[in-house]
Design goal:
This is DUF302 domain-containing protein. The chain is about 45% helix and about 25% strand. The chain has about 140 residues and is of the alpha+beta class. Helix 1 (about 15-25) packs across helix 5 and helix 4 (about 100-105) runs antiparallel to helix 5 (about 110-130). It starts with a strand and ends with a strand.
Amino acid sequence: MRYDRSVRLDTDFATAVTRTREALAAQGFGILTEIDVTATLKNKLDHDMEDYVILGACNPPLAHRALDTDRSIGLLLPCNVVVRRDGDATVVQALDPNTMVALTELDALRPVAEEATRRLDAALGSLTAAGAGSGRHEE
């Protein structure tokens, strides 16, 4: 089962991170956290890896609806958005919101997952359409 919604961009990493933040904001997602995985692994383990950041994105109305349905759903909210280098390209990935429904089998989460999917897909799609470099949508 695929659990991600991804786009591949022909742009530099810093530009991709900035445009991802903007695209998520345009769809009602705020960035609550940012984890620079590359720097963390270098500082803690002296391990070198490609550019990799995890943005903790949140759409409060959607999160509220999901949490009202199942308090444990916080474990599966599609909050993490990964921006990472992959060869000469940058990949932007989000958890597929339908994973919440598939794993919990709670039909009450389906409308939340559908709206979250529409918003995430719009954000990801705008990255390939708004001058972020040519891109390929990988669902």
